[in-house]
Amino acid sequence: MFVGYSRTSQIDQVAGYEAQLRDLHAVGCEKIFGEQVSSVNSSRPELERAIDFVRENDVLVVTRLDRLARSVADLSQIVARLEAKQVGLKILDMNIDTTSATGRLLMNLVGSIAQFEREIMFARQREGIAKAKAEHKFKGRAPTARRKTSDVVSMHRAGKKPTEIAVALGVGRSSVYRILADAA
């Protein structure tokens, strides 16, 4: 049995969501689990339901890899859970089907390439930051509250409460407390 899973990050992505449903129906998915939630900071209950639902020899079908997994580690975990249940995975836009040896090989290659690209991107980012620091162009995030230490201390000595100081200077109340503790 083909079981589909569709996801968009936001509710207003109607066209993308409908396109996924259309494609999943077109390949013969008998049951489709769908949700419209971001994959980054939230749980994906429909994905969990889909994985719980599939049985031995079923195939979980998604239109694109990014609709299924947040990262290579997430993909590996999902594939492992499916393999433990003897369930295949089919990714339509990449023409990957893990029910075959070639499909499993391609899945591993895609995961490895994605991991490689991510590591290269971070290495380039670190190199760029190091170069910018050497040229004194990169200073990092400006510490907004620390620059106002003298104002915080003088306002506190004048009898202002930390909340009033925070509002007046546009800094966080916890920053005011931290500055006052350091000044004591």
Mean pLDDT: 89
Query: Helical amount among residues, as a percent range?
Result: 40-55%
Structural class: alpha/beta
- The low-pLDDT segments are none
Looking at the structure, what is the overall shape? elongated
Number of strands: 5
Question: How would you classify the quaternary structure?
Answer: single chain
Q: What gyration radius follows from the Cα positions, in whole Å?
A: 25 Å
Q: From the 3D coordinates, which CATH architecture of the largest domain would you assign?
A: 3-Layer(aba) Sandwich
Please give a structural write-up.
With 184 residues, this protein is an alpha/beta fold. The chain has two domains: 2-115, Resolvase, N-terminal catalytic domain (Rossmann fold, 3-Layer(aba) Sandwich), CATH 3.40.50.1390; 146-183, Orthogonal Bundle (Arc Repressor Mutant, subunit A). It is 53% helix and 12% strand. It has helices spanning 14-26, 45-53, 72-84, 101-134, 149-157, 162-169, 173-183; strands at residues 2-8, 31-36, 59-62, 88-91, 96-97. A five-stranded mixed sheet has the order 2-1-3-4-5, sandwiched between helices. The longest helix has 34 residues, at 101-134. The termini are far apart.
